Fold:
Amino acid sequence: MPSVYIKTYGCQMNERDSEAVAAQLVAKGYTLARGEATADVILLNTCSVRDLAEQKALRKMENVAAEVRRHRPGVVLGFIGCMAQSRGQELIDRLPDVDLVVGTQKFHRTADYLDDILAGRRAKIVDVAEEQGSEATIRQHLLNGNAQKAATAFVSIMQGCNQYCTFCIVPYTRGPERSRTIPDIVAECRELAERGVKEITLLGQIVTSYGRRRSPHPAFPPAAPQPLAQSATNATAPQGGESKGARLAGSSAGAHDDKSPFVQLLEAVHQIEGLERIRFTSPHPKGYGDDLIEAYGRLPKLVESAHLPVQSGSDRVLKLMHRGYTRQRYLGIIEKLRHCQPRMGISTDIIVGFPGETEDDFQQTMSLTREVEFDQVYLFKYSPRRDTPAAEMAGQVPQPVKEERNQRLLLLVNEIGRRKYEQLVGQQMQILVEGPSRKNPARMMGRTRSNKIVVFDGSERHRGQLLEVRITRAGSFTLYGDPTVINLD
Ligand code: SAM
Structure:
């Protein structure tokens, strides 16, 4: 059978989509190539969030196509994911060696399309159409190719986005919000736990909107009664309803009515035996209700970690971005989270150089960063995206200004990070061991509940174990630990 290599650009959702495509191909008998040099099929799973990511994937395909044309003309080339969705046929017009373009609602068709191309039944395929129910098709897992025990897994709970932030291309590349049902998600998580997975990360563009909008899928089942949570899929919250309690179709009025569908999903996943930890990403500050904050104190498997994208510290910019919250509301959420869980690890996304951002606006982002003392910040220089309102706004910030602001903020983020990580030296923490350290495969790495990486001297037998470690040293956004001190006592 042919071998496939998938290179992934972008976010964790893209990683998850690639894994599901790879698992579908493996189930059909394809093998996974270690690199593109030995692959019969090369797929690039693309990202459109910034122009840089698109240019990288385009350059990569140009280079791969040139090599393949010269030495291995039978190799099949394809683009999948967000850029495939937004550019479609244009990709083949520009790079005629490309055989396949598969959009974000068609990942599950990739294997069949490759069969057709490899068997010579079809020459070129472009499929970027919408497909009802596609949100429930990202469900197969590789779990390290089944060869080794995987400690962690990502589970996609929804697709699309309805927020329409003025800078963001995602609603156009991933379509409107569609949520899977609670029973469907729980079944997938249960299977993973049975296969030894200890930690699950629930994924969605805005997970706090989970289940709030009716799915267009006609086959969405009505709610089956669950011990703790009813099916959340046909939620009938008012439009834009970020009020806590969404009334769920099929659910009886009562205890759950004041909890958001997302919190009901967390409760249902929490009941799965064998599962030790639950994470999620990304929530939206607008939907971060008290029910979710309170869940951290009530659900022990829900780890003390929140990735809460703020984007800017200036109310004026937040409004231009169409974020739907103020600086004060954001700070209020952080305060409540830390009150509920003092060891809460908090990370965020920030964009510098949004159109119209003045030095004063930027200073407000700097002061918010100082005030919150984020554990980790993902910094982005604003990148104009086609068809988004911000790309047309007046006051586009010159590139050198974006670079300079990015540099100043990065220095601050690093300084705060260094201080916060140093404070953990000497502390005892629980880690879940994920596998060898990426930087030094002779050592093992695990993750604390607050989402900090800990590197330690260990071996494969530690994979999947929850270990208590003493933190001995702090590096750049990495901790070093010693498990022997505690675990051999
Ligand atoms: N759904 C999350 C939210 O908006 O809260 C984030 C998803 S997005 C794929 C990841 C991050 O990319 C965003 O939080 C934002 O900081 C950044 N981003 C999105 N569009 C961008 C753009 N046009 N330029 C620069 N950064 C961008």
User: Anything to note?
Assistant: Residues 11, 49-50, 165, 167-168, 170, 205-206, 282, 284, 309, 311, 349, 351, 380, 382-383, 385 surround S-adenosylmethionine (CB under 6 Å). The longest helix spans residues 399-422. Confidence is low (pLDDT under 50) at residues 216-255. The CA atoms of residues 50 and 383 lie 5 Å apart.
